[in-house]
Amino acid sequence: xxxxxxxxxxxxxxxxxxxxxxxxxxxxxxxxxxxxxxxxxxxxxxxxxxxxxxxxxxxxxxxxxxxxxxxxxxxxxxxxxxxxxxxxxxxxxxxxxxxxxxxxxxxxxxxxxxxxxxxxxxxxxxxxxxxxxxxxxxxxxxxxxxxxxxxxxxxxxxxxxxxxxxxxxxxxxxxxxxxxxxxxxxxxxxxxxxxxxxxxxxxxxxxxxxxxxxxxxxxxxxxxxxxxxxxxxxxxxxxxxxxxxxxxxxxxxxxxxxxxxxxxxxxxxxxxxxxxxxxxxxxxxxxxxxxxxxxxxxxxxxxxxxxxxxxxxxxxxxxxxxxxxx
Length: 326
What we know:
By secondary structure, the protein is mostly beta strands.
């Protein structure tokens, strides 16, 4: 049975409720919360208390850092759609595209629903587009997330290739001194591949500071070999328990931190025999702790989640014929 507040769940009776969005003729007034996990920043909308549909154009407007609020991803909290979940949530990039999963977002999700009293205690069971996550709070700001088992089948990305430990792709990019064959206009990228509910490839680099995240990362992210796009990680191994990581994310570019990217990178490194089961991942925004005990076991991610501020933004209503994200 669901433990959601609308199903006899664990909602705190004293939790404040915001006013519903004003759905007048011309404008929407939308309450929001700005949060971040290691600098990977989010706008969180509570669609349980304030139901409203947003179009792709409106999501882009919210994500505009100059004319809107600005975020790497928008997190939309909704009522559960299956009996073993407390909540359902959807994730949108700043360009309006919907994605399957976000590890840093999951930690902020847990912090938000507890702070808002939407649920009284953990663990919190959250349904994403293709996974059921278990979220556990660890002290004031730390949250651990059972991210599920990594999937190393390239078809799940999707990426058309026979399953292997490593893969290669050629990219027409004369300006990227990464790995070249005899044709000096072609860069050959060697990488691991894994799905954490969303697609990732991981390139091992000697130095994250000089890795071509913005150039090669961007080219691989939109390479036709990945019809739905792919998140591209650049992994520097310091020792068997410590790594550095930078990630170029679909629809967002490089972010301060990528939780699913950290999970995928560590899982790939463990599978390749390069890393131990418990690894500290150093990202631009700070550190994550990632643990994976091997096949058949979930990846566990632990890191902080913080609220920055709350507010209300006014958006122009769109005509009924406008596209909507239902």
